[in-house]
Amino acid sequence: MRILLTGAQGQLGRHLQPLLAGHGELICVDRDECDFTDESATAALLNDVEPNLIVNPAAMTAVDLAEDEPQLADRLNHRLPSQLAEWCVQHQAALIHYSTDYVFGGTQTHPWREDDPQTPQSVYGTSKQAGEQAIIASGASALILRTAWLYSALPGNFLTAILNKAKAGEDLSVVFDQVGSPTWAQSLAEATHVLISQNHVPQAQTMCLHVVNHGAVSWHAFAQRAVSLAYQHGWIDREVKVRAVSSDEWPQKAKRPSGSVLDCSQYETLTGQHLASFDEALAKCLLQWSKRTC
Ligand SMILES: NC(=O)c1ccc[n+]([C@@H]2O[C@H](COP(=O)([O-])OP(=O)(O)OC[C@H]3O[C@@H](n4cnc5c(N)ncnc54)[C@H](OP(=O)(O)O)[C@@H]3O)[C@@H](O)[C@H]2O)c1
Which atom of ligand 1 is found nearest the CA of 149? Predict the structure, then answer.
C-alpha cells in the first residue's frame, strides 16, 4: 500500500509518521514539497504519487487567524479535503481526514455524539464542517476522525506554552468556562493505526468517528493539572499560580464553544480498544516533554 501523509511535519503528522511507516510505502509531504493552497500543484502531487491511502492532518489550525483569513481557511479545511476525496473516488483510493470539536456549538447537554447537530461558531469550525460535508457528498471511502484540543510535547501548542511559562516561573491566567476533551496527538495517531490495522476504512462511503482522550476538563483545570504534575516530578522549580479567568476576561477573536466534550464510544465499540484518560495521556506526554526540555 502506498500512503500519502500530508502535514507530515505538523503536530499530528509527526506522531503519525512512525506508525504509518509500518503499513506500507509512506510518502510524507509538507508545505516545502507542495503548497496545498495551489489546487493544480495538489492535483500534480496526487497524480505523481498515486497513493492507495491519503492521511490528511494538513489544515489551517490557527483558529483566531482564520477569522481574518476565511478564504485560506476555506481552501485548506474545505476545498483541499474535497479535492482529496474526489481524487480518491476517481482512483479507488481511501482517505483518512481529521476534523474538530469546533463543528459543535451552543449549550452542551451531553458529550457530543457523531450525529449530533452541528452549529460551528467560528470561521475555522465552519470551514472544517464544510470539509466533512464535501467528503461525505463525494462518496469517497473515507474516515473522518473528529478530535479536540490536541497537544503534544512538541513546541507550538497549549500544553507546551503553559509549561514553558511555568518553567520560567511565570504565573498563568487560563479560562475556566470552556470545557472539552484534551487529546494527546500520540493517542490519536495510535487510534489511526488501529483503524488501519483493523481495516475500518469503509468502502464507497464515509464514516465519522470521535477520537479523544476520556475526561471533561476546562482549559484551566488542564493547565493546573499539568503544572502540578510537572512540579511533583521536579521538572519545574515552582508550582506557579494558575488563575482561573472567564472567556470574557480573555477575549479571543474566534468564538469557542463553552462545552465541546466528545463521546468516543463508537470508536471503542468498533475497535474493541479503550482510549486513555486525559490524566494518563497527560502524564505520558509530560514525561516526553521533560526529556526534551529538562
Ligand atoms: N490542534 C488542535 O487543537 C486540533 C483540535 C481539533 C482538531 N484538529 C485537527 O487535527 C488535524 C491536525 O492538527 P495539528 O494540531 O497537527 O495541526 P498543525 O500542527 O497545525 O499541522 C498542520 C499541518 O498542515 C500544514 N499546512 C498548513 N498549510 C499548508 C499549506 N498551505 N500547504 C501545505 N501544508 C500546509 C502545516 O505546515 P506548516 O507548518 O508549514 O504550516 C502543518 O504541517 C487538523 O485537521 C486539525 O484541524 C486539531
Answer: 3
Question: Catalytic residue at 124?
Answer: yes
Query: In a 3-state reduction of DSSP, which class is residue 51?
Result: coil
Q: Is 241 inside a domain boundary?
A: no
Compute the distance from residue 66 Cα to the ligand 1 centre, in Å: 13
Tally of domains in the chain: 1
Enter the pTM of the model. 0.98
CA 38–ligand 1 middle distance (angstroms): 16
For the Cβ of 10 lying below 6 angstroms from any atom of ligand 1, the answer is yes
- For 150-193, what is each residue's pLDDT tens digit? 999 999 999 999 999 999 999 999 999 999 999 999 999 999 99
Identify the CATH number of the domain in which residue 75 sits: 3.40.50.720
Instruction: Tell me the CA–centroid distance for residue 259 and ligand 1, in Å.
Output: 22
Task: Report the atom number in ligand 1 closest to the C-alpha of 61.
Answer: 20
- Distance in Å from the first CA to the final CA of the chain: 40
Which helix (H) or strand (E) element contains residue 141? strand 141-147
